[in-house]
Structure formats: C-alpha cells, structure tokens
Amino acid sequence: MVGRVADEIVLSAEERVFLEAQVRRHKAARSLSDRCRMILLCAEGLQSKEVGAQLGVHEHTVGKWRRRFVNYRIEGLTDEYRPGRPRTVSDAQVAEVIERTLNSTPKDATHWSIRSMSAEMGLSHTTIRRIWAAFGLQPHRSETFKLSTDPLFVDKVHDIVGLYLSPPNRAIVLCVDEKSQIQALDREQPMAPGVAERRTHTYTRHGTTSLFAALDIATGAVIGKCYKRHRATEFLDFLKQIDRHMPEGPDVHIVMDNYATHKTPKIKAWLARRPHWHVHFTPTSASWINQVERWFAELTRKQLQRGVHRSTADLEADIAAFIEVHNENPKPYKWVKSANEILASVKRFCQKSQQKQCAEL
Question: β-pairing, 204-216 with 222-227?
C-alpha cells in the first residue's frame, strides 16, 4: 500500500530570507522559530518523519505545519485566535467595585483593602487586585500636600526655575537652607550574619545640631557647617563662609526660603554691601523648589536615618565627613520641568480637588 504523499514545499527568495531570519533571531518566539526550522527542512525534500527526528517533535506536528504553510504560506505559521475562558466578572460588577472604592468606606476602616472589598463584593481577592491594578486604584496609599498661598507664587516659580534651566552667564547659583534640630541618637544595633540589622525602639538623646548648607546647582558641590543654634547670627556667619569660598568677579544668586532669620536687618545690611549678591526667595510652603532639599534627603537616607551618635560632636563629624566625600565626586541634580509645566500641574491638581469637593457636597 502507498501512504499519503507529503505536500511539497517550494520557497520563494523572500520566504527563505524571512524563515532564516526568524531562526537566527534571539528574541523571536521559540514556537515560531521551531516552525520556521521545520519548513526549511521540509523545503530541502525531507519527509515529516525525518524532520521530526531531527527536531525532536512528532511527525504529525511537522505535517500540521507543512499543510498550514502550503495553504497559507508565512501567515499560516502563526497561532490561531483563541477566545480563552469565558468571563466570569461582568462589566457591571467591575463598575460597582470602582464606584465603591472611590465613593465609600468600610464600616470599620477609613479605606478599603483587597480583602475587605473582596468580602463586600463577593469576588475573589485576585479579581479585586486585577481591577484595581487595571484602573490605577490604590486606596491604601495616602499623601499629604500643602498649596502655597503666596500672592507672588507664579512670579517666584518663573524666577527660580529660570535660574535652574538658564542661569546667567558667569554667575554662581546657590541653593541655601538649614536642616535644624538634627538629633544625636544612640541606639543599640546588634548585627549578625544572616540577620537583618536590628534596632531597639528605645534611644538616648545626646543633643541636637543645625546644619546650614549651600548647594551649587552647576557642579553639585556643597558648602556646609553645623551650629548649635539656627538664629540670624549663625546664618550671617554661614553667609560669610560662603563669601570666602566664592571667587572674585562672578555674581552670586542665592535661592532660599522666607524664614525669619533670612530677613533680619543685619542680613539685609550685609547683603546690601554686596551688590553682586542677588537673593531669590522661594514661594511660601514651597520648599520642594529649593534643590538643596534634595541633598538633605540624601543626607538623611545615607547618614542620619540609621546613624548612631553618642554626642553632637560625633554627629557633626559624620556630617562633615559626608560632605567631604560628596564633594570628592559631586554631581548636579537635573531640573527637568519648566515653570509653565509646574504651574499647569498645580492647576490640574486644584481643579481635581475642587471637582471632588463639589461632588462630595
């Protein structure tokens, strides 16, 4: 008896180039590259059984893709559409989960959790997780904010962001601020191999110090000094220290907040005697616009948060060492948003807040 004759495969030049390219591609799907290998071997005149033996698949599998290629060419090597399992959650249920998440709270809590919403809706917790992820809902997260009420908010944002994005020629721009009341805390921190660092919840206070810092936005270098107090006297002394570090000639632009110690008569008189110094005050309740705050966050994360200090002298020594190491290879922070983009973000936030308040009323 004569068996079934296998379909003959004759490749065009374009088809051969495509198939060989898929076989060589590292990021091609494994299933597609295997099918391309089958077709290339079949085009050499090999039978399906021989191709299957070379590739380690059943001859019926080779015959299936041989027939698909003969009938549909390259398109026949792709998988057919599979509808998958029918949906078990309706659109109405999804809409109700979203509505309850946004506009209601459970009886015993201030916000919904995946488990509490699952029990309320009679759906599995994985279903609730997928719905929340699809619509970007995160009821467990909470953030604080404070909008600036400065009447010159727009002008100040344009002024300071303009300094960051397009500083004056041959000028030095410094972001100045103080990090006050840094505590020297002594904690027990036993460490052992294979065990996370542990700290007792109790601690001993050994005094506080205040750090005045000036960040050069062009280089990322920092001038810093610790003081026992943070009065106008200490701030004036720090300004004098900055002045000693500045080269002669270039103008100096200082960005600082509206703290009372920055505006005393002594400070104003000292600055008036230096016409090449220019002060730019940040808007009230807008410390985020001062780049030195970003450096303070780095200092806190790397040195202060888990530091152990048995005296203010130890604390000040560690801060000074951190500044010294930072200045060995300083890197400036990159300011990316323009003033118009910042103001547009604030406007959108205000509109959303107003809409939410109106909806609650």
Answer: antiparallel
Polymer length of the chain: 361
Measured between alpha carbons, how far is 279 from 6 in angstroms, rounded to an integer?
86
Are 359 and 253 in contact by the 8 Å Cβ rule? The answer is no
Q: What is the identity of the amino acid at 277?
A: W
Least confident of 76-90, 243-257, 306-320, 328-342: 76-90
Type of residue at 245 = H
Q: What does the block give as tokens for 192? A: 């052992």
Is-contact 92 118, C-beta < 8 A?
no
Q: What pLDDT score does 359 carry? A: 60
Contact 22, 77 (CB under 8 A): no
DSSP 322-357: HHHHHHHS---------HHHHHHHHHHHHHHHHHHH
pLDDT beyond 70 at 23:
yes
CA distances 136 to 102, 141, 348, Å, are 11, 12, 18
How many angstroms separate the CA atoms of 157 and 286, rounded? 9
Q: How many angstroms separate the CA atoms of 199 and 188, rounded?
A: 6
Of 73, 58, 84, nearest in space to 9 by CA: 73
pLDDT, tens digit, for every residue of 306-322? 888 888 898 999 999 99
Helix (H) / strand (E) containing 280: strand 277-281
**266 three-class SS:** helix
